[in-house]
Design a protein that fits this description.
Length: 664
């Protein structure tokens, strides 16, 4: 049997040897990216005045949640020590997985949904059936030819683009789902939040809105639950606790709250102040939960002897200690600035903020912590973060159309109202306010800042002469300042008694364009200082291209393995798979073109060689015919010799006859 110069199964086998290890390595990295990125919630320090651990020990304790490792004593105060296994340390009782701006797109970005399928075919039909009016037949034919051109250069392209966008939406949903699912499994958060812009546009129909909401709950955050309305409470003096923060177990998490998603309304969900109306807010609350509410979690004291140190109006009125409690405030700040389209909804937001302020504990007491979740960041001067201050307004009614940040006045409402800080040392609590932190989204690039006010600044007034010669009083007052958190930490601005401040974290977007980022916030209670402390870390997965490449490569590797296994099974039954594939490709591609590519010329040579062997086998049958021919040729030569023809002339005559025969 002849052999082929090219073997499809051998080529497939060699390809699998190359791509299988690459595919396996990329798949392991993709599905264990928090491990390779050393992602972990910040770990509370061993000593109360030490910084939180965001490095080796935090990562190792997270690994221990998934493995059973022995404990080895180690000196935790020595930063140079690198033990193989650290002792088990308690995780923070409150660990928030913060995700920003998924922005699920939908049919509004698909051309066939708003243009229709082959719209120019329909227009061409109307022109040909005289359903349209034209000045002359020439103009009608001209328009018909234009429609024919648009069919190929617009309709076909839009149809292909629509299929691509649908496939892209499907893949983007599962890309975002992969980030949430993998980090939720690896880091073991106690709570999860999405900081606004859940959807890609507020100007969609109700059907499109609820279809995107279905994708949100059944694809991206599958297994997640909406915070029930009866749990999302309005601030009140007499309130019921939402729950308790667990301090027991290796992950001290709650099976109820690990599934619930705390959703924040964003501008792409309900619009800016000039867009928000009752319909937009009603459907958001129906699908994702209330836009303004609070949750209160109490931390049980592990040391029962500390109970006697708590404030009690009768037994211990001089104490400034309250029961440790974390207050989580979900706030719609989209309509804090003016002018707003709906003053009723804006008044509701103002009333909610006033209720938060009026029901907060006095700033003189310790033990309460306020976590504010919102969407639009606080005011920052140009250059601090990527987004600069920006305000635009509608032309038709002058309402607020777009903003990158809150106004300075609205930001002061957060800092001085909800958190109770002041630039006046003589204010209650020396103006230090309540412990807390602010998390938001909107700025897709993310930003980590520290807002503070300098109480030692001396306010002065002086006369300044203006350009027209008149004198004016210029007042230099204390103002809120803001710096990057790392810079403020480097300059030792954090923790100063004369500079009350708060940390604001704008979580970088989880969209693929911004690296699939996620925020990890740990909040724990320091019993010695009787104050809550917080630390924030990030965990990026990588762009969406990595997700696509890995899954495409996995698909083709699995397909190749299945085909190779099928070829092996067929070989057991005597089927020559290589020859069948080559023959099929030759028929598909074409004989001459394919022979040049696959070496069919060598196969033809093998076939001719086989035919030569067959002729040699038949030589015995043709031997008698050869002898007769030789005898006839000898007789003719003798007759020519008797005529005086030499042997050279005989050879020339025979050669000439062959040449004439060949030409004929």
């Amino acid at each position: 049997m002849s052999q082929l110069s090219w073997s499809p199964t051998a080529t497939l086998r060699k390809g699998l040897r190359i791509f299988l290890p690459i595919s396996l390595a990329l798949t392991i990295y993709l599905y264990f990216f928090p491990f390779f990125g050393k992602c972990a919630f910040p770990l509370p320090p061993v000593q109360h005045n030490a910084p939180a651990d965001t490095g080796y020990h935090a990562f190792l304790e997270t690994v221990k949640l998934h493995l059973s490792l022995p404990s080895v004593p180690v000196d935790e105060t020595d930063p140079t020590s690198t033990p193989t296994v650290t002792p088990s340390r308690p995780l923070a009782p409150f660990r928030l997985l913060a995700l920003g701006d998924p922005q699920l797109e939908g049919d509004t970005s698909i051309p066939t949904e708003y243009l229709g399928v082959f719209p120019h075919v329909k227009s061409l039909f109307r022109h040909l059936t005289f359903q349209t009016s034209h000045a002359s037949l020439r103009w009608r034919l001209r328009q018909c030819f234009h429609e024919i051109v648009d069919i190929f250069f617009e309709d076909v392209f839009n149809l292909a683009e629509s299929y691509r966008k649908r496939f892209d939406h499907w893949g983007n949903d599962y890309y975002l789902a992969h980030i949430y699912r993998t980090l939720h499994w690896w880091s073991r958060p106690t709570h999860v939040t999405v900081l606004g812009d859940l959807l890609g546009s507020q100007w969609v129909t109700d059907d499109e809105f609820y279809w995107r909401a279905h994708r949100f709950w059944n694809r991206v955050f599958k297994g997640g639950e909406r915070v029930p309305d009866e749990v999302a409470m309005y601030p009140a003096d007499e309130y019921d606790l939402t729950g308790y923060l667990s301090t027991s177990g290796p992950a001290n998490d709650s099976s109820v709250w690990t599934k619930r998603i705390i959703n924040v309304a964003g501008n792409h969900d309900i619009g800016y102040a000039g867009d928000i109306n009752t319909n937009l807010t009603a459907r958001f609350e129906d699908a994702f939960g209330k836009i303004n509410y609070e949750l209160r979690f109490e931390l049980p004291l592990t040391n029962k002897s500390l109970t006697s140190t708590l404030f009690d109006a009768l037994d211990n009125p001089l104490s400034d200690r309250l029961v440790p409690e974390l207050r989580l405030v979900v706030l719609n700040d989209m309509n804090l600035d003016t002018p707003a389209l709906s003053t009723e909804l804006q008044d509701d937001t103002y009333s909610f903020i006033n209720s938060v302020i009026n029901t907060a504990s006095a700033v003189q007491f310790k033990g309460h912590f306020t976590l504010v979740l919102t969407h639009v960041p606080l005011y920052k001067p140009d250059g601090v973060c990527v987004d600069s201050p920006l305000f635009t307004f509608h032309d038709h009614d002058g309402t607020l159309k777009e903003q990158n940040q809150l106004s300075l006045a609205a930001s002061k409402g957060f800092l001085e109202g909800m958190l109770g800080m002041s630039g006046n040392k003589d204010a209650p609590g020396n103006g230090q306010g309540r412990r807390g932190i602010i998390l938001n989204g909107h700025d897709h690039e993310g930003c980590d800042t520290w807002h503070y006010i300098n109480q030692s600044f001396v306010e002065v007034e002086r006369l300044v002469q203006s350009e027209d010669g008149e004198y004016e009083i210029e007042r230099k007052q204390r103002e809120w300042e803001v710096k990057r958190y790392k810079q403020a930490k480097k300059e030792s601005l954090i923790g100063r008694e004369d500079m009350p401040g708060v940390r604001e974290v704008t979580v970088r977007s989880m969209m693929g364009e911004f690296g699939g980022n996620a925020g990890l916030l740990s909040v724990w209670f320091d019993e010695e200082e009787w104050e809550w402390k917080a630390e924030y870390a990030t965990c990026p997965m990588g762009t969406q291209h990595l997700w696509w490449v890995v899954h495409f490569m996995d698909f083709f590797v699995i397909l190749g393995a299945v085909l190779l296994a099928g070829a092996g099974v067929a070989g057991w039954f005597g089927v020559d798979v290589d020859r069948a594939v080559v023959r099929g490709l030759r028929r598909m591609v074409g004989g001459r073109k394919y022979r040049r590519r696959t070496g069919e010329r060598s196969e033809r040579q093998e076939r001719l060689r086989g035919e030569g062997e067959r002729h040699r086998d038949e030589r015995g049958k043709s031997r008698d015919r050869g002898v007769l021919k030789d005898r006839t040729r000898s007789k003719s030569r003798r007759r020519l010799e008797r005529r005086g023809v030499t042997p050279d002339q005989q050879l020339w005559s025979e050669a000439k006859k062959r040449l004439d025969y060949a030409k004929s």
